[in-house]
Design brief:
Elements: H1 9-18, H2 28-37, H3 44-54, H4 64-74
Helix pairs in contact: 1-4, 2-3
This protein binds calcium ion (CA).
InterPro entries: EF-hand-dom_pair, EF_Hand_1_Ca_BS, EF_hand_dom
GO molecular function, one term: calcium ion binding
Protein name: Ca2+-binding EF-hand superfamily protein
Length: 77
């Protein structure tokens, strides 16, 4: 099995872990849990700001695609 053509998979496992209620999107609360797991203490206002930044489709939650872009930017390199 080769996943060489699927760079998204790098974050898909993380996405599923972060998506605590399993609805396929990361909510602000789930984002807060993620940031804490990354060692970033974050308050609700900051979490909303991060969400707005990452939420390209403006639906108030992060899809896997948006999450991948977010992680590449935030945790990347
Ligand atoms: Ca969720």
């Amino acid at each position: 099995m080769s996943d060489a053509n699927e760079p998204v998979n790098e974050y898909a496992a993380t996405f599923r872990m972060v998506d605590l209620d399993g609805d396929g999107f990361i909510s602000v609360d789930e984002l807060k849990s993620l940031m804490r797991a990354l060692g970033q203490e974050i308050d609700h206002v900051r979490a909303v700001e991060v969400m707005v930044e990452a939420d390209g489709s403006r639906d108030g939650k992060m899809s896997l695609e948006e999450f991948t872009a977010f992680m590449s930017r935030y945790a990347g390199r």
